[in-house]
Amino acid sequence: xxxxxxxxxYEERMGQANTVLGQxxxxxxxxxxxxxxxxxxxxxxxxxxxxxxxxxxxxxSILDEILQDPNMPPYTRVKLWNVMSLLEAIKD
Length: 92
Known about the structure:
Layout: H1 4-26, H2 32-45, H3 52-66, H4 74-88
Helix pairs in contact: 1-2, 1-4, 2-3, 3-4
């Protein structure tokens, strides 16, 4: 079981990730498929019935797949890498 302190830290991390993913999903200079993946990642993080680690893992999986896209602007790629590093610290 995760301690209350860790749970709070994980929620903060997911909140930060959601903020950045929201920015990516609303950036009209980013290709539509990448914005869609960012929205899917937000949804994955907000699925309440799963543990924080599973939610983070699902979001990382979505982002990892889209990071292979050659049409992704470099600044968007950096934002998504930062989100992934935030989420990778979340464990059960």
